[in-house]
UniProtKB/TrEMBL annotation:
InterPro entries: FAD-bind_Monooxygenase_sf, FAD/NAD-bd_sf. Gene3D superfamilies: FAD/NAD(P)-binding domain (3.50.50.60). This is Cyclohexanone monooxygenase. PANTHER family: FAD_NAD(P)-BINDING DOMAIN-CONTAINING PROTEIN-RELATED, L-ORNITHINE N(5)-MONOOXYGENASE-RELATED. Its EC number is 1.14.13.22, 1.14.13.84. Keywords: Monooxygenase, Oxidoreductase. GO terms for molecular function: 4-hydroxyacetophenone monooxygenase activity; cyclohexanone monooxygenase activity.
Amino acid sequence: MRHHEVVIVGAGISGIGAAVELRRHGIDDFVLLEKGDAVAGTWRDNTYPGCACDVPSALYSYSFAPNREWTRLFAGQEEIRRYIERVAGEHRIFRRIRFGTEMQRAQWDEGSHRWIVDTSSGVITAGVLIAAAGPWHEPLVPEIAGLDTFPGEVFHSSRWNHRYDLTGKRVAVVGTGASAVQFVPEVERKAAALHVYQRTAQWVLPKPDYALRRAERALLRSVPGAHSVLRRVEYSIMETLGLGFRNPWIMKVIQQLGKAWLRLQVSDPRLRRTLTPEHTLGCKRLLFSNEYYRALTQPTVQVHPTAVASVRGNVVAGADGSETAVDAIIFGTGFHILDMPVASRIFDAQGRSLDEHWKGSPQAYLGTTIAGFPNAFVLLGPSLGTGHTSAFTILEAQLGYVAQVLTRARQEGWTRVEPRREAQETFNARVQAALAGTVYNSGGCRSYFFDVNGRNSFNWPWSTRRMLNELATFDETAFDVTASSRPDVTTAPLS
């Protein structure tokens, strides 16, 4: 049975970043398990027309691998995918990836202080398990009566069927979130008729995007410090926006821009009323587009302000009683964010899954380590999401924390590191108390930030700076640590 010091699950931005960070700290015995056939995770899977980042490109990258060649202020999917591939290649990560290998089950063995990992390619063991599958991975398709009998084409935006030609087709789009805002304008240009089913109106702000000119790219590439300055400027702008999430009155001021943008783009007062949200800006994920509203005003497009109740033959029936015949249904309904499928595959020493521990409400200490699961780390975990910073910023803060724990374990000879349950509960109580006054919780909507129990298990309620500070120091008093001398436990720490 093959053993590794560290097993990383997933080869997206989190997994690649973890591999690089381990190498930087002298940990070279690791393997990445990737069920797909390529790296980049979300940016490999989401190939829908118009797919792009809604965070400025200079921020949406690893700090240790700045990309001075972005062609747009907000990069597109293909460009981001190539960037992630390049980073993996430059840091010699490909040789450590097992493509086409899915983690099926991982269970902690208390006797050996190891993780027993069942994969589609066999069983391996590890001293440390890093879950890097990410929350934007498994598509969420709502259960709709009769959908399985629909005679036309059905797919989710993250599993786009590029072989199906939408030209001249009658298309129903279910969902109006971040993905739909990007692909709806592209579908509108081809479809004979487009029906957009909107359960809740969303605030859509103008996107300050443009193609970087050759001279601007040359400046970022050749002038020392130019790219760093751009990154700091973008970070400062996003952090200023972050004040609004913690002070809803600021968001109510900013949302006037959303109202003005809607008024400028949509002249029909009836459609404008349909598209005007009732919640405060920031209660749901911020959406940016310069084309979405324009697309909805086209004569071939109809917005249905209702959920889909059922599908009967080729007819989509809305909860408002409307019926529409279509040739294709596209779901822009997001992902299993807080009910991450990987949680059903990770088990404690007694055989209880992470899902069973969480009971629908994910919790972790500093969003990274979990009581009951020694030597395990979850990246982009619960209570770390914000509406105003890059996933890379959160990720790198976590990776620095993970590196501290593993380095200290090596120094002290620890074979087992687990957060104390009381430390985890105290941290999460602080988070929940602080969330009460944020726009996430008080903005008048229900979003994917809330789990099945009605608890906000997604958001970080403070500034990014505070997150960086809290993850900057490993507090040993919050953990139970063991330096085992038992003969059946390996002498190499955490391996």
